[in-house]
Design a protein that fits this description.
With 103 residues, the protein is α+β, with helices and mostly antiparallel strands. The chain has one domain (7-102). Helices cover 55% and strands 13% of the residues. It has helices at residues 15-27, 32-42, 44-59, 68-84; strands at residues 7-11, 90-94, 100-102. The protein has a 3-stranded mixed sheet with strand order 1-2-3, with helices on one face. A hairpin with a 5-residue loop joins strand 2 and strand 3 (100-102). The protein is globular and about 30 Å long. The model has no long low-confidence stretch (mean pLDDT 87).
């Protein structure tokens, strides 16, 4: 029997998620542990959706791509959040171009 984990549908247009994204983005300079703590404080759905959006934007920044180490830290933070806060849930992120990515 396959166990299916819960999933959250994340829309960037959600005003609470947008506010949390802004807050987390400002925190990236303080390190991914600080980002994790703020995402955790926002809760599994809001914090996880915002974290997924921030990690996606960070990893896909073409004008200032992250170093391998920074990219690894971002990905590890998302994995840790999914495991420890969201019970292994997947975050389905809807991008402005209509594509959807799972984190």
């Amino acid at each position: 029997m396959e166990v299916v984990k819960a999933g959250y549908s994340c829309a960037a247009a959600d005003p609470v998620v947008e506010t949390t994204v802004v807050d987390l983005t400002k925190t990236v300079a303080s390190g991914w542990d600080a980002v994790y703590a703020k995402a955790k404080a926002a809760g599994a759905r809001i914090g996880g959706c915002a974290l997924a959006l921030v990690v996606q934007a960070f990893m896909s920044n073409r004008s200032a791509p992250p170093t391998v180490s920074d990219g690894w830290s971002a990905a590890t933070t998302m994995d840790r959040f999914r495991r420890d806060v969201a019970g292994g849930a997947t975050f389905h992120v809807e991008h402005e171009d209509g594509t959807v990515a799972d984190y």
